[in-house]
Amino acid sequence: MPKRAAGVSLPFLALDSGEGAPLHHQLYERLRESILSGALAPRSRLPSTRTLSRELGVSRGTVEGAFAQLDAEGFLERRVGSGSVVALPEHARLPRTSPSAPRHRESRPVLSRRGQRLSRDVLPPEPRDVRPFTPCLPALDLFPTRLWSRAVARQARLLGPESMTAGEPAGFRPLREAIAAHLGTARGVRCEWRQVLVLSSTQQALDLSARMLLDEGEGVWLEEPGYLGARAAFESAGARVFPVPVDAEGLRVDVGVSRAAKARLAYVTPSHQYPLGVTLSLPRRLALLEWARSARAWVLEDDYDSEFRYATRPLAAIQGLDVAGRVLYAGTFNKVMFPSLRLAFLVVPDALVEAFTAARAATDGHAPLLHQAAMAHFMEAGHYVAHLRQMRLAYAERRDVLLDALRREVDGGLVPGAAEAGMHVTAFLARGLRDLDIVQRADTKRLGARRLSPLYLGRREEQGLVLGFSGTSPAGLRDAVRALARLL
Ligand SMILES: Cc1ncc(COP(=O)(O)O)c(C=O)c1O
């Protein structure tokens, strides 16, 4: 029976208490799907939480939980006194044709199998606004805007007709040279500039590597818990992902070998594991390289925030230990500079340079030349290293403030894990607390904390929060921890 409530008609909301998923999550999913499919038109008004809870025979908290999450993700606009109105966030405006709910019935699915995999929602929608705990957000308040805009303006002036035609698929040579030199001294990466490909993001490096190196059904080791962006790239390339647990020394290489010795690739974040923050120990690094050499497999090293290590010098990259040419090394400027810059790099073994360059040309041409040239100038002039140094100091202070505030305000309720490096801390929730509930409530306060449990692929999962600290001032962090403590 279609349900009708004051406001729009909601015929699709039959919730099932035997379904397994909590009722607020079922309600959230059904409303979200209806908004995306167009069944609920933008600007239509939903019934109040009170009315809807009565109609559905569930508690008001259940409806409130679903609405809060939809609000946080931009699917609803809630105004005190005037109710909730359907909105369609920017990230969802693309035409969506999910295989499970086709808009037009056709004998063949509209999307290819690859397309279906690619459009699967592995990555949760990210709020666009700056929030106190958003992970991996740089300190935009401390960014040297004047120096950067001077570098961009200078390069724009120098741009002649020949550089306005087309650039090199592998990237602007001075930038490739500057990256190779920096990686050699700062990260122990051993490469020539020819091996450096300039890309727009680590995500592009993952996508390109997955497509170039993996055939359908081939195995990939993924850290457990691990980075959803990597999972999305490998799964959409048709690879079979094997979760490999992480302990205090990083990836359990022995478990990887026993579960999937014949895998073709291992994805690792060895300097600062995402999300747990641990460092891959030297014996494990060597074991990983030995497995890759003997299995003729690849290691994809994602060095996303390795430059920010606070107590000791950053550990050298695995790439520098590799003598068999099995390691691809990915790094990004989007975290050190600013996320919308879209400049990153991938260092590939000699044997792969030509093929990857051709694939880069076939898939995307090249990164925008103006920003590549500005970045090269920024590095050559020493601004990049100076900026890194300043950010290291600022982030160390912010990390200390966060840890101190957690200790004072939520002692025992939330226990921080490894915190020697990086731009976030993962903290574990006390027994009985679920990250879904906490993050839903935190979203209503726009705190930006992320859940830990969805980053596990296997059955065993821990409940916790991923708390970014780099993008927020010390005072802002203290306020945010106080707000979080009230929620807990
Ligand atoms: C492990 C890891 N790798 C890579 C990235 C992102 O890098 P990019 O924006 O260049 O894709 C992130 C950011 O959130 C990350 O957590």
From TrEMBL:
Keywords of this entry: Aminotransferase, DNA-binding, Pyridoxal phosphate, Transcription, Transcription regulation, Transferase
- In residue numbers, the region (Disordered) covers 90-125
Instruction: Return the InterPro entries for the record.
Output: Aminotransferase_I/II_large, HTH_trans_reg/aminotransferase, PyrdxlP-dep_Trfase, PyrdxlP-dep_Trfase_major, Tscrpt_reg_HTH_GntR, WH-like_DNA-bd_sf, WH_DNA-bd_sf
Q: Which PROSITE patterns does the protein's record reference?
A: HTH_GNTR
The residue ranges of the HTH gntR-type domain are 21-89
Q: Which organism is it from?
A: Pyxidicoccus fallax
The cross-references to Pfam families, in alphabetical order and at most eight, read: Aminotran_1_2, GntR
Which lineage?
Bacteria, Pseudomonadati, Myxococcota, Myxococcia, Myxococcales
Name of protein = PLP-dependent aminotransferase family protein
Q: Which GO terms describe its molecular function?
A: DNA binding; DNA-binding transcription factor activity; pyridoxal phosphate binding; transaminase activity
Family the entry assigns:
In the C-terminal section; belongs to the class-I pyridoxal-phosphate-dependent aminotransferase family.
Q: Which domain of life is it from?
A: Bacteria
